Amino acid sequence: MSSAHSAAHALYGGTAGRRVTVRDIAAAKGRHERWPMVTAYDAMTAKVFDEAGIPVMLVGDSAAMVVYGYDSTLPVTVDDLIPLTAAVVRGSSRALVVADLPFGSYQGSPQQALETAARFMKEAGAHAVKLEGGSRVLPQVETLVAAGVPVMGHLGLTPQSVNAFGGYRVQGRGQSGDELMADAKALEHAGAFAVVLECVPAELAARVTAALSIPTIGIGAGPGTDAQVLVWQDLMGLTERPAKFVKKYFDLAGAMDRAVREFADEVTSGAFPTAEHSYS
Ligand code: KIV
After folding, report:
1. How far is Cα 227 from Cα 257, in angstroms, rounded to an integer?
2. For position 14, what pLDDT does the model report?
3. Catalytic residue positions?
4. CA-CA 20 to 30 A from 120: which of 4, 81, 129, 226?
């Protein structure tokens, strides 16, 4: 890890030998420290991100699209996400693992939210949960927090509400920015330890960040949030048509295409396997 990443007490790469906790995350806000979060859905990928010092991993309901191939996050179920969450927990030793509560698994009542969160914590070992929405889910957040479940909020473009929004569009422009600010403050008041701001104007996200004492985690929310999150398949270049807010750090699709074609060519030509990859 580079020295820039190993500064004493830094959240990114800083807590050797134990899991990052929500207390570490709160302390990072006090130090005005920025930190990265990525999604993860399997043990091997989680291990790579964990060893790179990523302090928080989200088993997002984006798994619906990037793992299960659906065209929205709506169809994925608790039973679909629990094995992925368990794999990410097993593959990591340092990151705080946040499980996304899927559509329909918490909106019904605070009791339903608690039952779902308990499954993610008991069956998968999740350390926290995330749910979407502001004022309408405050009773759920309060109940979870009272039961000792760390809760991450999610405001702005909340993909589980795509049908209500009429598509994936920027949220919080104009007057709805005041509503988003009020929702963010209400989530903080209800006990959330962090809040994701997705696809909101950068200026609004910076204002919300300054107004809250809990960290904001931006995705398409500009540079003014405390943390940034990306879906790993987006940042690694596996996604065919990524959103405007995605920066592609690697051409994984291209690298995989080249590798699998080389394998196929060597199989068909007889160049693989050689003695090196055979048993005597
Ligand atoms: O499901 C997900 O991956 C998310 C992130 C994009 C924040 O909610």
Report:
1. 32
2. 73
3. 198
4. 226
